[in-house]
What does this fold into?
Amino acid sequence: MMDAISTLFSDYTVRTVALGATLLGITAGALGCFAMLRRQSLLGDAISHAALPGIAIAFLITGSKSPLVLVLGAGLAGWFGTFLITGLTRRTRITHDTALAMLLSVFFGFGLMLLTFIQRRPDANQAGLDSFLFGQAAALMQRDIQVMFGIGCVVLLLMTLFWKEFKLISFDAEAAHTLGLPVRALDHLLTALFVSAIVIGLQTVGVVLMSAMIIAPAAAARQWTDRLWVMMGLAAFFGAVSGVGGVLSSGLVPHLPTGPVIVLFISAIVVFSLLFAPNRGLAFRMMRQWRSGQQFRVDAVLVDMYTLASQHETVDHPHSEQVLNAMSGNARRTLHLLETLGLAQRIDDEHWGLTESGTERARGLVEKRWGEGP
Amino acid sequence: MIMNDIHSDETAIEVRDLTVAYGQQPVLWDVDVSVPKGVLLAVLGPNGAGKTTFIKSILDLVPVAGGSIRIHGRPYRRNRSRVAYVPQRGSVDWDFPTHVLDVVEMGTYGRLGWFRRPGAAEREQALKALAQVEMTSYAHRQISQLSGGQQQRVFLARALVQDAEVYLMDEPFQGVDATTERTIVELLKRLRERGKTVVVVHHDLQTVQEYFDHVLLLNGRRIAAGPVAEVFTEENLRATYGGRVAFLSSLLTQRAP
It folds into this structure.
């Protein structure tokens, strides 16, 4: 296995593709955090679909498949798409989600139409444009990587420079305005970065799956931390790991498409994070709930025994299990737990009494609840 | 214009003929208010009376259909740094991945300028502001773990860090615990002692006389504005709230002795 991987890495093409997927994972992952926190998760989907006609038009106009030209076309179309969405939402009664859904399908449909038109032309040069649909990482070349690297660096640099401004408009845009920040301009800048991060991933994972690269790393990272910069770092890391993972698995297993495998990798990370992250993870929460439920049952039985005993002369007066069952539901399992904890002791087959430490604890509980003993 | 200049020394906020409409629906009509410097002003009125809109229009957060607003004699846009805003705490997502001190430091972002990160000085100011709202021990707490009252105090601290002349607060007493309410009242008094002007959207008529010295009664238009003793009358309240003020007469007789 390790041999196979190291052989793979010595392959020039695989190295190039892996580098591209890593760059994409880092850029999209980090920027995706802002998208998620600003509740713009679906915007990424709309932008990537809107980019398709841009690619087709750029090719029709220039006849070139140079990555810079295609990325520029995709970027302009994506930006125009978000511009229309904001405009529609602001000036008409159409809600944001409706505008998103409409723009997404209209632009995508138009893009498909143009692609079909291009493919029917007697022109050998057009081959490969349709790889933008689902992505074709294996076709990544040196010049593609250069463009991805350049755009990725600019995006990350701007994100660092405007870090506090972006954080503030994401948390509280109105406060940002009253503090004197040009919220509208910053909003446009962040959207532009967003569009850039998306277009550099189109060739690798395709317009259909690109939004997963934006949102999934952020969603997974949010589970593990409560600090924004840690979240960004984690998201970038998750993005990079799934990128490399996807490229390697499709290199090891024949006929495995890279883009979809990358998306599956990041989805697996999301599922794992949703389940097992401390504090926010589902498993952790269930555990905590179960524990507090058990704590509650233990305390309830203790208090019941104490209340019963206080009607007799001695606090360790034994009580029958049946009475305790009647008072707080099924007490048997809790009683065994109390015994393990040294809070209660079995007197005979049917009867249980409080130990000294059990009495102490019960008295504390009663005083906390009612102020004084019964 | 001449009057404006004469008053600019004593008048903190001068609102003239303010009209705001959302779509076709007018929310505020032709409101004139002049808030003297150094007062605690309560903005009162029934739900939908335009109280929040009034504050937001001063802050340039909602488009104004007509009228003029001046802060210490100058338009808001040229006097922005002298105005601090405390929004309703429900206006943000408290699950945002950040901690208390970080939120308070955001109050310094305006004067920090581009590309500069908050440093030791800003941290110092933020901690001082947190101490004023009795939240020092929560400085590194994740904000989703705060109670409603604590969230409110964090927002107050963020406004304090701005060190402004005029403070606009949107329902700071809404749904907070008794401790927070006391802290806020103390804070308001201290701000007044330092000559600051505070405008508070308020709901609880019972506490108006105790907490504030000026009131503005709003219901789409200005019903009355001025010192509590003159303006907070049964007649004005009836005009503001309509018939639903049976409880008001008892409220007002309380202050007779």
Q: What stands out?
A: The two ends of chain A are 70 Å apart (CA to CA). The beta strands of chain A are 319-320, 344-346, 351-354. The first helix of chain A runs from residue 2 to 10. Chain A has two domains: 2-258, 284-370.
